Amino acid sequence: MNTRRVLRRVTAASALALLCTQPAWAQNFANVNFDRLMKAEKEPGNWMTHGGTYREAHYSPLDQINVSNVGKLQLAWYGDFDTNRGQQATPLVIDGVMYTSSSWSKVYAYDAATGKELWRFDPKVPGTIAKSVCCDVVNRGVAAWNGKIYVGTLDGRLIAVDAKTGKPVWSTVTVDQSKPYTITGAPRVFKGKVVIGNSGAEYGVRGYVTAYDAETGKQAWRFYITPNPNNEPDGAASDRIHREKGYATWGDGAWKQTGGGGTAWDALVYDPDYNQLIIGTGNANPWSWKSRSSNEGDNLFVGSMLAIDADTGDYRWHYQETPGDDWDYTSVQPIVLTELSINGSKRKVALHAPKNGFFYVVDRSNGKLISAEKFATVNWAAGVDMETGRPVVYEQARYGISGGDFLAIPGPFGAHNWHPMAFSPKTNLVYIPVQNIPFGYADDGSFKYTPGHGAWNLGITSKQNAGPQDEPERKIMAMRTEGHLLAWDPVRQTEAWRINHGGVASSGVLATGGNLVFQGTPDGKLVAYRSDNGQKVWSWQGYDGIIAGAMSYLVNGEQYIAVLSGFGGSNALHVPYFMNAKVGTNGRVLVFKLNGKATLPDNMKPVLDAQVPSDTFTEEQVAKGAALFGNCVLCHGFGMNTNNMVPDLRRSPIPSNRKAFEDIVLRGAREDKGMPNWGATLSQEDSEALRAYIASRAKVLQRDLAAEKTVSKR
Question: Backbone dihedral region of 184: left (phi > 0), alpha (psi from -120 to 50 degrees) or beta?
Fold first, then answer.
């Protein structure tokens, strides 16, 4: 390669990255320390921590790929995973080596220039844990420190592996594994500590964040998001603040059995300006404020941005975005740290677009609200009172008080979910993947807490959430949803531009110094837009859907764009309003550069027609099976619409074979793949009733598909 020619065509940022980024073989693996992470912005060719730097802006200043030449962007290499389902991680690249996780908490290392796989690590997560996962068996990334790569596993472990060999260095169990805790988020590392949260609030757990010594795995401190239900000390950093403030904000109710939720399953942002960790906290459990807390109290610290001392875990400040959460409005969505000029003064701020539909600008020094405005369609609150910082909630939105069935926008899928948003210091705009998906809420007056793995404890019911039962209904309901990429001005709190996607199409976002914003789509596209005005300037069509956020790096003088493909997650499982044309297999990492020469093989499988069993079933069996299928919708979808992420039972040949079906349902033949063994719960008669119901749905699908084929022939 002619290095002199390369240096002439890159800007100062890219030239600096070229000097700092060497091939993997020239340096130690994952040679990351606190000083290097603090100066990460001076090494734009690397992506050493979640979001790129401690600011977590998902912004790369690299500009070798820009609006003038992005049309030449092509696939450079790809890597195949051995797991399907949703792929949500954003890779790290350190000194020419890429590290990423996949579903089922597996970790991969690649030569970032050639795509050669260096190693893979399988933590051997038991498939049985899938019954305690609300939103797919995903993992959102790894952390790096001093020659080690850290991953949180779905079954609640935190593991350090050798960055050179992929061999485990230490492992610690971070949760009570007898309870339905899981981990899907990426760890964060700072000052010799690695921190991790957990998830599981839909089932009934008490959320917390724990810091461990990055070298040994020894616990340093722990902070519980919700108070001890017995108002007793936990021996944790959170004891004092819950004694002084937290416990008094909870009434009597089911939270004392469930733990109250609040799980921190994504946003954990180290703020070096104030040596604090800012945590985005999760939803309360049960969802119903009435069932949980007798319609009393703000329920600290759920639905909040919470800052704690990075060294000790002691409480600093909080801003609660959704007091008395009634709608699963988590605040775990990505948080961006930056400085903005507001009313003529420079302010160190946190930018946040959580599920509830409001965009918040908060002072990082004290947690004071600077501004808040709706960035999406919102009907649960009129706005935010700037004197109190509290939302002005419509009376009918409090369904536990009104006794109504409230159709909310946003619903539990959020106006913005886990998908990374990006902030560009060049445009001073935030790029947010927005979605509008309505959801009904009514209090379940007969709610009783059910402990254990696999038992959802929401405290709500609504006839409005039945889901589509056939193809015409699915298409009608799809019209109720909408998704778009939104460019938002955080100072003016106004929209700059938007790209309407038509339906729900959430995918993470990357902004670059080349005046580009990259976003994937569920149908396998990666698209680039001008970051200043939203003009579409490039698109590439792959196979499996893309939901993860992309990243960028530089090796040997060439800039790359990398993103994971693999359709899945909560939208795929629970929003059956769009359908992939093919069935995805294993996920991939896709890497692009200018004039790339790689060709991507098609690894998709065609969607089968309806498979109707030849067996004869009674109406009583169908009715019984329909009732039993209520336990299956979490994975197999309302009306068996699965978006082809997990088997569409209407199109599967398995239900036509009684023995094969019973082997799976009653004897656990696919337990290792996440299909639970229901043998201790269901009888052979129950299994036959399920087959009867599946057969009835397959007949409906067969009818609908036949009608569509008839029309297409005209």
Answer: alpha
pLDDT tens for 293-304 read 999 999 999 999
Lowest mean pLDDT among 65-79, 199-213, 639-653: 639-653
Angle at 95 between CA 551 and CA 517, to 5 degrees: 15
The pair of structure tokens assigned to 677 is 């063994």
Pairing of strands 193-196, 73-80: unpaired
Question: Which tokens is 647 given?
Answer: 């088997």
- Last residue in a domain, options 590, 605, 620: 605
Q: Tally DSSP H helices, then E strands, for the chain.
A: 13, 39
Please check whether residues 582 and 693 belong to one and the same domain. no
Task: Provide the 3-class DSSP secondary structure of residue 247.
Answer: helix
Give the whole-angstrom CA distance, residue 639 versus residue 636.
8
Give the residues across from 196 on adjacent strands. Answer: 210
**Do residues 230 and 251 share a domain?**
yes
Same domain, yes or no: 664 and 601: no
328 catalytic residue (yes or no) = yes
Instruction: Give the separation between CA 709 and CA 582, rounded to whole angstroms.
Output: 17
Tell me the pLDDT tens digit for each residue of 155-179. Answer: 999 999 999 999 999 999 999 999 9
Determine which one of 326, 328, 544, 648 is catalytic: 328
* Cα–Cα nearest to 705, from 510, 525, 472, 529: 472
pTM of the model: 0.94
Q: For the chain, how far is it from start to end, CA to CA, in angstroms? A: 57
pLDDT at 40 over 70: yes
